[in-house]
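2024-03-11 09:14:02 DEBUG pipeline.ingest accepted 1 chain
2024-03-11 09:14:02 DEBUG pipeline.ingest length=217
2024-03-11 09:14:03 DEBUG pipeline.predict start
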Amino acid sequence: MPEQNIIAIDGPSGSGKSTVAKLVAEKIDGYSLDSGSLYRAVALGIYESEVAGKKFNSAKEFLELFPTIKVIDNRIYIGDRDVSKLIRDTEISSLTSKIATNIEVREYVNAFMHKYASEFHPLVVEGRDIGSVVFPDALLKIFLNADLEERAKRRSKELNEANENLVLKTLQERDDRDSRRKESPLLIAKGAVVIDTTDRLIDDIVNYIVRLWWKSI
């Protein structure tokens, strides 16, 4: 039942997933969920625990003690603390890329998303394995992509990073790591509609996805 109320949007960094997901959710009077922010929240928890001197033998051991993650109005909370800005820190971003490959962490985040989907719908979820692994029976599956150079420009602007070449190299490395990882690699889900966002206006993309949604339900 919940998956019939889901739009799954996948794609690499800089393809426009977050912006598109939020705008589509608004258009269909629904909710949006950024899976990446959940991984970032876990990474922040691990980072702060280790800084405090706490060591864990496994991700599972950490997650058993991990405070509740909450998503309220697209803001991320650990317990009652709003960490929406903290999880965007460069150091946390780097750690997120590493812990996101851990199967125990992925199972934890996937379980969170399934629970969230059962409570909030229609739901637009964005990430890298949403349509292929997390919600393979989503009513509508979208895969966004764009030229690497264009994605680097967007990411540089988002991060306020002047060295676009550095961002481009980082994206290349992330693309390679995401597509090659053993658990839930980045790929185009079966039945997904592929949209190249390189030269398309955001409103055009959003309206196209909304039309597909209304045709699907």
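2024-03-11 09:14:41 DEBUG pipeline.report The mean pLDDT is 91.
2024-03-11 09:14:41 DEBUG pipeline.predict end
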